[in-house]
Amino acid sequence: MSIDKAIKQTKGFKDERKRAVINVMYTGNWLVGHVNDLLKPHKLNDQHYNILRILKGRYPDYISPGQVKEVLLNKRGDLTRLVDKLVKMELVNRCNNDENRRVVNLSITEKGLQLIEDLELEYEMSEKHENKLTEEEAKTLNILLDKMRE
């Protein structure tokens, strides 16, 4: 469905660049909504999932909350509160840094790793929209989105 129909735009856009920006924002929110629907039964949101993915990428090493925040896709909200929930759910370990007591270290637990694996499988099974783009189309889209942020 075109962005015009999706947002019931009747007057049209000023130009294709404006249309593209709205389309990217709408599609991004649509994708986040889809991911959040998959995460809801696990009592997680897209930020929790992003934190778990970051920690999985560093596993078995530790990472500081500051390093996590640097690479979060969505920096809204309180990182401490988000991590607290993951620790409470036993998906993340938090411990003090032996070299600097003011620094906290984070790592993903085995339970967290298993959840990420299960979620990835669940996500793959539900992702019909990913298959709508060929590899070449996806590559072109990635190049264009990267160019937008330059």
UniProtKB/TrEMBL annotation:
SMART domains in alphabetical order: HTH_MARR
Domain called HTH marR-type: residue spans: 1-150
Swiss-Prot/TrEMBL GO biological process terms: response to stress
Signal peptide: none
Record-linked Pfam families: MarR (PF01047)
GO molecular function: DNA binding; DNA-binding transcription factor activity
UniProt superkingdom: Bacteria
InterPro entries assigned: HTH_MarR-typ (IPR000835), MarR/SlyA-like (IPR039422), WH-like_DNA-bd_sf (IPR036388), WH_DNA-bd_sf (IPR036390)
PROSITE patterns tied to this protein: HTH_MARR_2
Matching SUPFAM superfamilies: Winged helix' DNA-binding domain (SSF46785)
Key words, A-Z: DNA-binding
Protein name, per record: DNA-binding MarR family transcriptional regulator
Source species of the chain: Aureibacter tunicatorum
